[in-house]
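User: hey, got a sec? need Transcriptional regulator, DeoR family folded
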Amino acid sequence: MLTGQRKALILDILRRDGQVIAKALADDLGLSEDTIRRDLREMAGEKLLKRVHGGALPLSPDLPDFSARQSVSSDEKRRLGAHAAGMVRPGQTVFLDGGTTNAEIVRHLPKDLPVTIVTHSPTIAGELEHHSAADVILIGGKLYKHSMVATGAVAMAAIASIRADTFFLGVTAIHPARGFSTGDFEEAAIKRHIAQCSAETYVLATREKLNAASPCQILPMTSVSGLIVSSDVPEESLAPYRDAEVSLLTA
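Assistant: Yep! Here you go:
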């Protein structure tokens, strides 16, 4: 098999499985593992994939620091936030993950809506300053500054005592085979714990996060109640999620 053919096969496997295991692929093709690893190094240099120990993952979006992300609010994020806010009912307990997309949920909530908002993000809590009818529960812990959320044992214990009606989960990447993922192990554990303590979990899926994978899995695709996606996302991008029988809510 020629080098170009191997690389095309590697990309096909990434799209299908969300990962490439170097040893398994070498065994399947009857090649040395060094040959596959060399292909992966070259493809990583060409920005076609992300090298990890033992193989490769699809590229995930490179995120700037939180303050830079906070200053950018796209029309897509506003539409997703407005749709999610419309799902919140009076009297509910809603857990809001950190992130700039989830901040748009708060900005679209009626300021007189009687609701309990739980969050481990001080920036999300700050957005609720003028929501006079909302009770706000801020979870503390070790601050993960990249996402401005609390992590660690203190946060885990506090979250365990709460049962939210709905959790709006923030992620850095979404893949039909690899599920929902983020870049930090501790943050992934907290997100997974919140989902386990919530009746329903929804993800606001901006276009650049689809069909990508980050190193730390949060949940498999079938573990959430639905994805909220923009109406202008091409159908071919959504087809793998429909095939996986994931509920898609269009904003």
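Quick note: The domain at 3-57 is CATH 1.10.10.10 (Arc Repressor Mutant, subunit A). Let me know if you need anything else on Transcriptional regulator, DeoR family.
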